[in-house]
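In response to a reviewer's request, we include the raw inputs and outputs for one of the modeled complexes. The two entities were modeled together in a single run.
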Amino acid sequence: MSEDKRERLYLFDTTLRDGAQTSGVDFSVEEKAVIARMLDDLGVDYVEGGYPGANPVDTEFFSSCPGFKRATFTAFGMTKRAGRSAANDPGLAGLFDSKAKAICLVAKSWDYHVDVALGITNEENLESISESVTAVAERGLEPMIDCEHFFDGYKSNPEYALACAKAAYDSGARWVVLCDTNGGTLPDEVEAIVTEVVKHVPGTHLGIHAHNDTEHAVANSLAAVRAGARQIQGTLNGIGERCGNANLVSLIPTLLLKPGYAERFETGMTTEDLGSLSHVSHNFDEILNRAPDRQAPYVGDSAFATKAGIHASAILKEPETYEHIVPECVGNRRRVLVSDQAGKSNLLAELQRVGLKVEKDDPRLGRLLDEVKEREAIGYAYEAADVSFELLARRMLDSVPEFFRVESFRVLVERRYNALGNLVTASEATVKVTVDDETMISVGEGNGPVNALDVALRKDLGKYQPYIDDLELVDFKVRILNGGTSATTRVLVESADGEGRRWFTVGVSPNIVDASFQALIDSVTYKLLRDGAPAP
Amino acid sequence: MSEDKRERLYLFDTTLRDGAQTSGVDFSVEEKAVIARMLDDLGVDYVEGGYPGANPVDTEFFSSCPGFKRATFTAFGMTKRAGRSAANDPGLAGLFDSKAKAICLVAKSWDYHVDVALGITNEENLESISESVTAVAERGLEPMIDCEHFFDGYKSNPEYALACAKAAYDSGARWVVLCDTNGGTLPDEVEAIVTEVVKHVPGTHLGIHAHNDTEHAVANSLAAVRAGARQIQGTLNGIGERCGNANLVSLIPTLLLKPGYAERFETGMTTEDLGSLSHVSHNFDEILNRAPDRQAPYVGDSAFATKAGIHASAILKEPETYEHIVPECVGNRRRVLVSDQAGKSNLLAELQRVGLKVEKDDPRLGRLLDEVKEREAIGYAYEAADVSFELLARRMLDSVPEFFRVESFRVLVERRYNALGNLVTASEATVKVTVDDETMISVGEGNGPVNALDVALRKDLGKYQPYIDDLELVDFKVRILNGGTSATTRVLVESADGEGRRWFTVGVSPNIVDASFQALIDSVTYKLLRDGAPAP
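The model returned the following structure tokens for the whole complex.
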């Protein structure tokens, strides 16, 4: 099908509005600005920035215009109150004072809520919808209506739910958005109901706003599109109230790559935009200060990862029959995990990725595989700690300079009552390090033994100190591998540096402090290697 | 519709087999046993425990029978190799040696893979399917076939994919499972393809095995059911290779509560089983040592949480119009920013369970609830550590004797090179304890700081020593609650005694040694209390 025959599908992002309802999420004005720019760069059609007038952050954010290249800056608000003229409604006034180019107004479309929550008649509610839409249009702004509880309302009183949608459309709303506010509607119901709605309001003016309460937000969005809706509302990484909103990061690749959609529809996004998707998703988690979901569809670190050795060799030979899309299309990559189930082909693929060239029949390959298997048997987890794997491989196949040598460390944890009779806990570590021929001894305090050790270790690395100044321990995970007194402890350390790079290292020991120490040492060594620190 | 008119839908859990492909997940034999029991208690029909013969853990797990109340213990394997008789196939032999009651064999159903991956003819593959099924049936075991790459195979060569399914069914397979191995198939395609398949194999013999690569594993499973399939394969919390398998924890409530399914189908689960779902989901994450997803559909902590002030009071007044299901049906609860009654009734039930009688309007109940909420907010997990909860409650509502008092402890961890130039690590702890008016100081060595502390603490408790001689620390789990430098550490300790009793205690601190110490103290105190040790 030629490109100009494809129908246009619009992407509406509500990360900054409905996404801000996520428990634990609070955006600052600056964060809103960064995320809005990211969304515009990605290529969504609408960026709903918040509810100006409702809180100071949103009012300030809407007091200037983000200067979008492609997206339409959209404000959220409520239809005017019954009994007031649109011109005298303070809520609408706040929206009109903002720099928004489009206004999305929420309106009740379930007669039960019109009665119980608003306490007005069905007719008054329809009037409020019509007059609010007209007022927005008269200001030269793009009007849209979010029909709240549309699907539950339709199930209870289809005529009235439809009347609300029609009132919005007939008075000039560019979009009438059907909201599954409680998130309990299933895909077949969505498809059936939207199929009825398009008989009254053209699909080119219908949007879908789905929530994930039954794990169907993405499927419900596509069900509505199949039935005729042409706007999808969603959020980055599916954040949102309760179980979240429809995840645009999962929807976008399906729309752009899967033939059933890509051949029928076009969005405002190019294939180049799509290539930035993994980065956008991870960057957004960065802003939220949370670890990205490794299992996230399309963009997760594990989305194209294979653990089973039997599959691995086949995947390398014929990736297209084992992968539903080409990972690079969404800015992701294939990962063949090095694990106890691994074979040589997993290993080769991984070595190739880190830039180590080895022939398939190189005997060192077999030795490396044996070493990996032996170490995984005692608890190392190289699939999770790719940097520790890389260092191990480089040591066996090439060489890694011994930048520094830790001669000894000592960690003391104490709990006692102080002179005032208060309980105090203290952790202190001393580390003795040799760089070239110089020996340094450093001491550090921390809120626990590992923290104290980390502080002491990175206090003075002599000439290497400038290389590790921006190194940061961002997370560590502890796993006890086999319970009881003979327990082995595995520590996974996540590090980051000033350039936003993140990497994982692993240490294993019956002693948690020692395991942490190994992982910390690997992390520092990798940082020095990566940044081209000179060998001693 | 009366209950007996409903069709039976079967739930097949593959957490222990396909779920074990999750990157970072490795089950021990003991963990497999615990999870299998949990699944049987939940009420799934099949528990696929792994691939006996493929690795030592699975072989050992299948060497004894879990003694299920309801579930069928199922082993995974491969159809026999072409050119070998089923009787001489070592893979099948390993399965027959196991204690499994049902055998699920994976078979290629995409002609391309039959050629490229297996290197055999299409006919040979069909024969292998038929003969393998027959061999399983002849042993008196329930045979099923997983048709690998079924949907991709069907799109490329529908006749051959169907021939594979038919070969399995015709030779007596109880279930022919259609697998979306690459996870790229969309719900409308699944529904259309399964609709064709049921024309050749009855839906009562068809299963669906979906992956979440486009965030449609749940929707795809239901699409297949709508088209006629009557077995669903999935995993707890949707774990699995790449983006995971279909999430049974999301599917089960939809099947049991949503009229479109609940009125048409019945499963092996009762509404009482459903009430344990949130607990099962959280407990499983505990075993995986990871934080439960707060936004998980149905069972997440945020699944029925409301942040918006405007909604909150309306929800309390009319919850049924704001919540798609009643949270308690799945063992979850509503969370709003108002202190709610649900908390108190949970608490009362829990107190009753441990034998503490309190009246509903006792003011101490409110204080205990506040204390529990405050402590859970900083990281304590009383759901997992029932004994720490019991001690807290007894201290506030009754009293717990202070059998002993730890005046101070000190733990030293050292790593250095000894006189021979070998690296040695040592952990040593000293503990000063007062019992009655006697003060004792003990020292212990261990393979890590917590072990050393445990040894020192239990070395000399004076007159209480006989009570704790049979006390044993059997497991401890460490969780870092909020990454980075301000991390809080939660330690869960599992203890056991000579009578085979097991109990859990919890400690929270930025310092892992201190957190472990708290949990150890709770454990020792509980043991003394339980065994009726005299107060000092």
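As requested, we also summarize the result in words. Confidence is low (pLDDT under 50) at residues 337-342 of chain B. Chain B touches chain A through 106 residues (CB under 8 Å).
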